[in-house]
Amino acid sequence: MLFIKSKFRGGVHPKDFKDISRDEKLLSIDPGDEVIIPLVQHIGAPAAPNVKKGDKIVRGDIIGTPSGFISSLIHSSVAGTVKDIDLRPHPLGKNMMSVIVSPDTQAEERSSYKPKPQQQVDALSSKDIVSLVQKAGIAGMGGASFPTHVKLSPPKGKIIETLIINSAECEPYLTADETLVRNHAGEIIKGAKAIQKAIGAKRLIIAIEDNKPEAISVLRKALFEEGAIELIVLPTRYPQGGEKQLIQAVLYKEVPSGGLPMDVQALVQNTATAFAVYEAVYYDKPLIERVVTVTGHNLKQPGNYRIKIGTKLRDVLSQAGYEENPSSLAVMGGPMMGLPVIDMDTPVIKSTSGILIIDKVRLKKEFPCIRCGRCIEHCPMGLSPTEIASSFNRKDMDGLNDLHVTDCIECGCCSYVCPAGIPLVQYLKLSKWELRKNAQKKS
C-alpha cells in the first residue's frame, strides 16, 4: 500500500457528510408494482425496444438492442409482463422512451445465475471477456455511462499500460463504492483482473481516498495475496474521482486537451463497474441492479441499497423512510454534479450512484465578477471560467473555442468558490451546448 500526495491541479474540500450513510450493511429495495426501464442508459445511440406490450419476460431478458457500436444492451431487472413502451421520466430531466414492466414475484424466484468454475474463467480470452461485458450491457457506473465494451476495445495501435480502478468516490454524501468495497472486495479484484486481461495492461492500481479507512483496511487484506496489484491511498480532494484528475494524481501524467486516457496509455474504471464485470464474467449476469447511496435530510433509514434498474424514485424513498416535503429537493447523484429531480416516477438507471434529499436553498444573489481569480485557481482543468462566461454572454464562439471550454468536466468547483455567486458551471454547460449547436449548423 502506498500513500502519495495528490498531484492534480485545483479542486476544493467541501464537507463530505459521508457519515450519514456510511455503514457496512447493504440493504435491498423492493421494486414496487411497476418498473420503468429507459432505453437510454448510456452515452451513444439509444437502444431499440426488443419486446412489445403484453410480452411475458424473465429477469435478465433483453428488452432493448443496441443501434450502433457505441450503444448498450438493456435487460429487464424483473420478471413479469410488459405493461407499455412509452415516454417516461428520465434522470436527465427529459421524457425518454422506456419499457414499463409489471413485476411477477413468483416468476422472479425461478430465475437465477450460477457461478462458473475458476478453470472456465481462466480459459477465457481477452475477446471472450469483452464479449461477456457487451452481452451484460455494462456501461460506466461512475456517472459517465460510456459503454464498457467500447472502452475495453481501444483502437489499433493504442496500448494500455495501466488500469486504474477508481475507488476515490469524491462526491460529498455518497458512500456506495465504499460500501461495495467493504462487502465485495474480493469480487471487485476479480473483476479488475478480468478487465486487465481484456486490455492487456501490465499494471493494475486501485486508487482510494484516505477518508475511507475501513474500506482501505478491507482492500489491504484482500490484496495481501495479490502482489501484482497496487493500492494507492490519496489525500481527500474533490474532484479526484474524475478520470483525468485521477490519472494526474496517480501517474503524474496529464491527458492532453481534447484527448482520452488511452493517449497516456491508461484506462480508468469505476469500482461498481469492476464489480459488474465480475458478475458478467463469473455468472453471465447482466447489469440489472446496482448499489445506490440513499442519503440526506428527512430520511429515517439512510444507507446503501441494492436497487433494481428501473425502480422508481418514490418507491426507493418510501422504503428509506422519507415523507414528501415541499421544503426538500431530490437529487440524482451527489450535490456537486447531481441533477435535481421533480418527478418522483423517475427511475434508477445504470449510472445512478446516489439519491440525495437536501433542503431547498435559496440561490445566492449574483453580483458582477470581482476578478478575484478563485475560479481559475480551483479549476481542475486549468480553465478560466469567468472568461468563458464573458465570452458566452458576448456570443463569441471563437472565444469559447480558444478558451477550451469543451475540456470542462462540469465538476462545479468554479461555482462553489465564486464569492460573487455567479453560477459559472451553468455558463460552461451552456457554452458547450452552444458550440455543439453551432457545429451542427455548419455541418
Can you walk through the features of this model?
29% of the residues lie in helices and 20% in strands. The chain is of the alpha/beta class and 443 residues long. Among the domains are: 2-22 and 116-283, 3-Layer(aba) Sandwich (Rossmann fold), CATH 3.40.50; 374-442, no CATH class. The strands form 4 sheets. Strands 2-15-14-18-16-17 form a 6-stranded mixed beta sheet, sandwiched between helices. It has a 5-stranded parallel beta sheet with strand order 1-12-11-10-13, sandwiched between helices. Helix 5 links the parallel strand 10 (162-167) and strand 11 (203-209). Helix 5 (176-199) crosses helix 8. The radius of gyration is 21 Å and the shape is globular. The model has no long low-confidence stretch (mean pLDDT 93).
CATH superfamily of the domain at 2-22 and 116-283: NADH-ubiquinone oxidoreductase 51kDa subunit
Helix content: 25-40%
- CATH architecture call of the domain at 2-22 and 116-283: 3-Layer(aba) Sandwich
Q: Report the count of strand segments.
A: 18
- Structural class per helix/strand content? alpha/beta
Q: Tell me the CATH topology of the domain at 2-22 and 116-283.
A: Rossmann fold
Beta content: 15-25%
* Straight-line N-to-C gap: 51 Å
- How many strands, which pairing sense, and closed or not: the largest β-sheet? 6 strands, mixed
DSSP helical segment count: 14
* Uncertain regions spanning at least 5 consecutive residues: none
How do the strands of the widest beta sheet line up side by side?
2-15-14-18-16-17
Output the radius of gyration: 21 Å
* Mean of all residue-level pLDDT scores: 93
Q: Globular, elongated, flat, extended or rod-shaped: what is the shape?
A: globular
CATH class category label of the domain at 2-22 and 116-283: Alpha Beta
